Amino acid sequence: MRVVLTGGGTGGHIYPALAIAEQLKADKPDTEFLYVGGKRGLENTIVPATGMRFETLDITGFRRSLSADNIKTVLRFLRGVQASSELLEKFKPDVVIGTGGYVCGPVVYAAHKLRIPTLIHEQNAIPGLTNRFLSRYVNTVAVSFDGTQDQFPKARRVMYSGNPRATTVHSADAAEGFRLLGLPQETPVVLVVGGSIGAKAINEAMLQMVPDIVRMPDVHFVYVTGKRYYEEAKRTLEEAPWVTPSNLHVLPYVERMPEVLAASTLVVSRAGASFLAEVTSLGIPAVLIPSPNVTNNHQEVNARALEEDGAAIVILERELGGESLFAAVEAVMRDEYLRTRMAERSAELGKPDSAVVIATELRKLAVRAQAIRRGVL
């Protein structure tokens, strides 16, 4: 099978696409891929590192208010459709997959016009603008959160698939996570992470609560500052009037996050959809601080979905501080019944077969399209 993947801007769009590719490759090693990304997104560094063929389009998103820039965006979209059509006609894919971001628009729309089977995947509980637009043209819309299927009323087919990143991390080795952290197996671990570049609000709250963690000496705290904030956090700890507790591990970044996640007892993080898919795939309780700086406040909606099912505690950023964060962490870590119940609810929300479900749907679309071309259907 020949497959075009498109998704860009943030890791939340890119990693699900790569997880789908990984599953398709595992099923059929001779599968060929082309990834089409934007010129400015993280895909420009992440995708080439995989060795996958990579092409880019010059595309930007619409402003939500009236703006002359939107005229330029329309022109870029039309040029993007033309460029995408040329790429697709040359590569001749059996199916095209879009996982979000502006670059998906022209690629998936061009595939629709060329009658190539298409699928889009929506990671968040509130769909992005691009996926809303594309939903009326594609063969299948796959959603990460069960119950959000009605967000796409004009779609031909909507299926609950979960997020394919869940499949990637589900088999992560907890023992290896403990080894990477230099900790004995079964050590209770609280992982505090704000993403690859970090989250200022989470960092500030974590630094405020550091003096309190000595009250939980049997719990090890792994504090991932993000590369942007590491030096500042290290300097704050060095200049503090108290000694940094021995049960605190401060890192700028974690290369092998799935293994560290698998070793974690509780996660404190933002509420990005892909990361939540990983957390629930492993059945980990969470304290979630959704970012308020995202479109449609979708991270809070993501977080509330876990909270309503008993898998997470949500702290809004305006309510976040060292005291509120420590109180939430302590409540979970000191109550084994609560922690076990949250872990069970998290695992029930997890969809570890997500990539398999999506790969199966893609093969069905490709086979049906081939049958139609041959006149069988």
TrEMBL record:
<feature type="binding site">
    <location>
        <position position="299"/>
    </location>
    <ligand>
        <name>UDP-N-acetyl-alpha-D-glucosamine</name>
    </ligand>
</feature>
<dbReference type="GO" id="GO:0050511">
    <property type="term" value="F:undecaprenyldiphospho-muramoylpentapeptide beta-N-acetylglucosaminyltransferase activity"/>
</dbReference>
<keyword id="KW-0328">Glycosyltransferase</keyword>
<comment type="function">
    <text>Cell wall formation. Catalyzes the transfer of a GlcNAc subunit on undecaprenyl-pyrophosphoryl-MurNAc-pentapeptide (lipid intermediate I) to form undecaprenyl-pyrophosphoryl-MurNAc-(pentapeptide)GlcNAc (lipid intermediate II).</text>
</comment>
<dbReference type="GO" id="GO:0008360">
    <property type="term" value="P:regulation of cell shape"/>
</dbReference>
<dbReference type="GO" id="GO:0009252">
    <property type="term" value="P:peptidoglycan biosynthetic process"/>
</dbReference>
<dbReference type="InterPro" id="IPR004276">
    <property type="entry name" value="GlycoTrans_28_N"/>
</dbReference>
<keyword id="KW-1003">Cell membrane</keyword>
<keyword id="KW-0472">Membrane</keyword>
<keyword id="KW-0131">Cell cycle</keyword>
<keyword id="KW-0132">Cell division</keyword>
<dbReference type="GO" id="GO:0051991">
    <property type="term" value="F:UDP-N-acetyl-D-glucosamine:N-acetylmuramoyl-L-alanyl-D-glutamyl-meso-2,6-diaminopimelyl-D-alanyl-D-alanine-diphosphoundecaprenol 4-beta-N-acetylglucosaminlytransferase activity"/>
</dbReference>
<dbReference type="InterPro" id="IPR007235">
    <property type="entry name" value="Glyco_trans_28_C"/>
</dbReference>
<feature type="binding site">
    <location>
        <begin position="10"/>
        <end position="12"/>
    </location>
    <ligand>
        <name>UDP-N-acetyl-alpha-D-glucosamine</name>
    </ligand>
</feature>
<comment type="pathway">
    <text>Cell wall biogenesis; peptidoglycan biosynthesis.</text>
</comment>
<keyword id="KW-0573">Peptidoglycan synthesis</keyword>
<dbReference type="Pfam" id="PF03033">
    <property type="entry name" value="Glyco_transf_28"/>
</dbReference>
<dbReference type="GO" id="GO:0071555">
    <property type="term" value="P:cell wall organization"/>
</dbReference>
<comment type="similarity">
    <text>Belongs to the glycosyltransferase 28 family. MurG subfamily.</text>
</comment>
<protein>
    <recommendedName>
        <fullName>UDP-N-acetylglucosamine--N-acetylmuramyl-(pentapeptide) pyrophosphoryl-undecaprenol N-acetylglucosamine transferase</fullName>
        <ecNumber>2.4.1.227</ecNumber>
    </recommendedName>
</protein>
<dbReference type="GO" id="GO:0051301">
    <property type="term" value="P:cell division"/>
</dbReference>
<dbReference type="Pfam" id="PF04101">
    <property type="entry name" value="Glyco_tran_28_C"/>
</dbReference>
<feature type="binding site">
    <location>
        <position position="124"/>
    </location>
    <ligand>
        <name>UDP-N-acetyl-alpha-D-glucosamine</name>
    </ligand>
</feature>
<dbReference type="InterPro" id="IPR006009">
    <property type="entry name" value="GlcNAc_MurG"/>
</dbReference>
<feature type="binding site">
    <location>
        <position position="196"/>
    </location>
    <ligand>
        <name>UDP-N-acetyl-alpha-D-glucosamine</name>
    </ligand>
</feature>
<keyword id="KW-0961">Cell wall biogenesis/degradation</keyword>
<dbReference type="GO" id="GO:0005975">
    <property type="term" value="P:carbohydrate metabolic process"/>
</dbReference>
<feature type="domain" description="Glycosyl transferase family 28 C-terminal">
    <location>
        <begin position="189"/>
        <end position="354"/>
    </location>
</feature>
<keyword id="KW-0133">Cell shape</keyword>
<keyword id="KW-0808">Transferase</keyword>
<feature type="domain" description="Glycosyltransferase family 28 N-terminal">
    <location>
        <begin position="3"/>
        <end position="142"/>
    </location>
</feature>
<dbReference type="GO" id="GO:0005886">
    <property type="term" value="C:plasma membrane"/>
</dbReference>
